[in-house]
Here is the input.
Amino acid sequence: MDFIPVNKPIIGEDEKKAVLDVVSSGMLVNPSFEGGAQVRAFEGKLRKLLGVKHAVAVNSGTAALHTVLMALGVKPGDEVVVPSFTFVATANVVLACGAKPVFVDIKDDYNMDPDAFRKAITRKTKAVIPVHVYGYPADMDEIREIADSKSVKVVEDAAESLGATYKGVQTGKLSDAGCFSLYATKVVTSGEGGAISTDDDELAELLRLVRNHGQVHGYDSRHLGYNYRLPEMSAALASVQMDRLDGFLDARERNAKRLMEMLGSVDGAEFTQDATDRTHCYYLYTLRLKKGRDRVKESLAAAGVGSGVYWPVPVHRTPLYQGLGYSKKKLPRTEDAAKRVLSIPVHPGVSQGDLKRVRDAFLSAAREHLR
Ligand SMILES: *Cc1c(COP(=O)(O)O)cnc(C)c1O
Here is the structure.
């Protein structure tokens, strides 16, 4: 029996053809301010989906976050409020600007606690980066309101949330700028890649500058920037994937709802991302286990069912951040989540038969390790 991975890229013939066409054309990159034809086509599709004025493709989700902080002018002496329950990129880009990440705790839904954010604000706070963890939107109204009252910029880490909505609005349109990842396992992929969304004309101009070493016409750098351009092959791949997004999202939701029905009554395995004013894109379907998480994971693996722990070590507990002096930081909800969460497969490649295997493996693991 095939192993069912917790996530995997879904690549079809159209993607292969699109990439091959670019390779054959010889137009592999277009190092201009606007980007090449494939980049612009992808950006157009993202803009339309999100209902934003600007989409700027870059070569990773990390680059998206760094580009936004650079464009917002985050610099040494500034503070940026971030969760610790996230992928390390969210905090690393703050360090990359010479600024200080200020970690705050989460709620039961794994997203930033707006009250913790409020309490963390100082005169140095320049921005806040809520993460839509697992593809489930954070409390954006509350975060936005607090940020606005203190003139703090809001940047969404929407790396996991493409297609998710909050009160009817797409993530990535709920703040000054949204940052997406097109990494291989994300909802839509280009292998490696990323994108930024914004409704702010001036910010969009700066984002394009940072993406291209600050150049407009070439050899005319007017702003510090990097090479954060997305290659044309990757953009072509992402562009085809965007056309399939509705199908991907439907499949993920169907699989997640099915697991909810099948596992909803299991004691000690809770699904906590279910507010009715927002929609999940089910990048990850994650249960909170009362106990025995690592043993459940092993038991699933033995039955050919992949699962993932996102994230076993909160960012402030990694050696890098411990060395930077965060060892006394107390984030009890973050640390508790890191011990209990387990994500199980719902990606579009998971069949109805696979779901039954996931159910059987999970029920048997739960009987053994959860009580
Ligand atoms: C994937 C991810 C990123 C980074 O994206 P890359 O494309 O891997 O650079 C940032 N934040 C979160 C929450 C992510 O899941």
Notes: The chain has two domains: 13-243, 245-369.
